[in-house]
Amino acid sequence: MSQPQVRLRTQRLLDKYLSGASMDYRKVIALYVPILIDQAFIIGLNVVNTAMISSAGVAAVSAVSTIDSLNIFLINVFVAIATGGTVVVAQYKGSGNDSMVAKAAGASIASVSILSLCIGLLVMLLHNPLLKLFLGSATAEVSAYAKVYLIGSCTSFLGIGIVQAVSGVMRGIGKSRVSLVLSLIMNVMYVLLNFVFINLLDMGVLGMTFAVNVARFAGAICALIYVIKMDESLHLRLLELFHVPWAMLKKIMAIGLPFAAEQMFFNGGKMLTQVFIVSLGTYAIATNAISGTIAMVYQIPAVAMSITLVTVVGHCIGGRNIDDARKFIKSFLWLASFSFVLMTIILMPLFHPLVHLFHPPAEIVDDIFYVLLINAVAQIPLWAISFILPSGLRAAGDSRFTSVTSMLTMWLFRVVLGYVLGIMLGFGIIGVWIAMNCEWGVRGALFLWRYRGKKWYEHKLV
User: Fold this and answer.
1) Cα–Cα distance, 169 to 176 (Å, whole number)
2) What was the pLDDT predicted at 346?
3) Residue 454 has what DSSP assignment?
4) What crossing angle do the helices spanning 428-451 and 399-409 adopt, rounded to 10°?
C-alpha cells in the first residue's frame, strides 16, 4: 500500500470514529495532544520526584506516599469543583453563548480558589489528629517526616487550586495548550527545585515542601496573569475573581458537588486502604508507593483521554447532539484500552530499569513486579469502562449517578475485599491490588449499563 493510500485510509478512520457535527478529528486531536503531553510530564516528573526522595531512605518514601494519599484526597475535592466549571464552560461554549462562558469561568476560578484556601487552613489546624489516624502504627521517623510534609503541602493548596481552576476553564473553551503551559511551568520548576533542595542541599522532606510551595504559587501567578492580561476571549477582570454569582455557582456545584463527594468517599476509601497497608509494615508501604508510581506511567494516554472527553462531550451536549456524544465516548473507550495494550508491551520489559530508579530494598522487588503484572493485565479491559465512561457521563450532567456508583463500589469492593484479601487471608499488598482491580470491573459494568440507556443525557444544565 502506497503512502498516499495509507494517509487516505487513516483519514477515513479518523473521520469515521473521531469526527461529528460538533467537532472533527482535527479539533479532538488538538485538544488531546497538549493534555497528553501535560499528563506525561506530570506523571514522569512524579516518578523523578519519588526517585529523588527515595535517596533519603525507605522511611521518607513511606511518609511522603502516605501523606500524598491524603493530599490527593484533599486536592481532588477542589479539582472536582474545577471539573464542574469545565463542564459548564464547555456546554456554554457548545451552545455558542460566549457571554455566559466568561461568567462561568470567573465563578469557577473564584469558588475553587476560596475552597482550596479553606481546606488548606483546616487541615493545618487538624494535622495532629490526622497524623494519628493515618500513621498510628508507623515508626517515629516516618511520623516526623509525615508531619513536615503534611503542613508544607497544605500551605500550597491555594496555589494548586488557582492553577487547576484556570486550567479547567481553558480546557472547557478548547484551549488545552494553556493548561499544558501552566502545568509545565509548575511541574518543571517543582522538579528542578527538588533537585536543588533534596540532592544538592540534602534537605530531604523539608526541601520537598519548599519546592512544592514555590512551584505551585509561581504557577498560580502565571495563571492569573494569563486570564486577566493575556486571554482575549474571556475578558476577565481581577475583581470578577472575588465575586461568585449565585445562579452560576449553582450550575457549577450541580456537577462539582456530587463529584467532590465522590472524590471524598473514593479517596477516603483509598486512604483507609492505606491505613491497613501501614499495619503491614514500612516495606509494604514502600511497595505500594513504588508500584503506584510506576502504574501511573501505564495510564498516561488513557488519563489524558478521560480529561479530553469532558470537553468533547460537553460541547456535544451543549449543542444537543446526543449521537456525537455516544460516538465519541465509544471511540475513546476502545482507544484507551488499546493504549494499555501498547503501554504494557513497551513497559513490562523495562521493569528492572524502572524499579531501580527508586532504590528499593531487594526484599520487595518481586512483590512490586507481581503487583504491576497483575495490574497491567487487569487494566486493559477494565480501566476504560471504570474511568473513561464516567468522564463522558459527567460531562453530560449525569454527575449524581456516577458519584453514587463510584462511592458504593469503592467501599463495598475495594475497601472490604482489600481487607479480606490483604489482611484476613494474608495475601498482603498483592491482595489489596487484586481487590482494586475487581472494583474496577464492578464499577465499569454499572457505567456501561447506564451508558446504554437514555437517562444520562436528559439533564438540562445550560
Assistant:
1) 9
2) 92
3) S
4) 150
